[in-house]
Amino acid sequence: MGKYLSFSIIAIKHGYKNKGETIARFAFYGIILLVFSSLWNAVGSEKIGLKPRDMIWYLAMTEWIVLSYPLIHTAIQEDIRTGNVAYLLTRPIPYIWVKFFEGMGTLLLRMLILAFAGFGFAYFITGGLPTNPLGLLLYFPVGIFASMVVTLYQSIIGLFSFWLQDATPIYWIFSKCNFILGGMMLPLDIYPEWLQKIAMLTPFSSFLYLPVKACLELDASLLLEALIKLTVWAVIGLIAMQLIYLRGVKKLNVNGG
Question: Can you give the three-state secondary structure of the chain, one letter per residue?
Answer without folding.
Answer: CHHHHHHHHHHHHHHHHCHHHHHHHHHHHHHHHHHHHHHHHHHCCCCCCCCHHHHHHHHHHHHHHHCCCCCHHHHHHHHHHHCHHHHHCCCCCCHHHHHHHHHHHHHHHHHHHHHHHHHHHHHHHHCCCCCCHHHHHHHHHHHHHHHHHHHHHHHHHHHCHHHHCCCHHHHHHHHHHHHHCCCCCCCHHHCCHHHHHHHHCCCHHHHCHHHHHHHHHCCHHHHHHHHHHHHHHHHHHHHHHHHHHHHHHHHHHHCCC
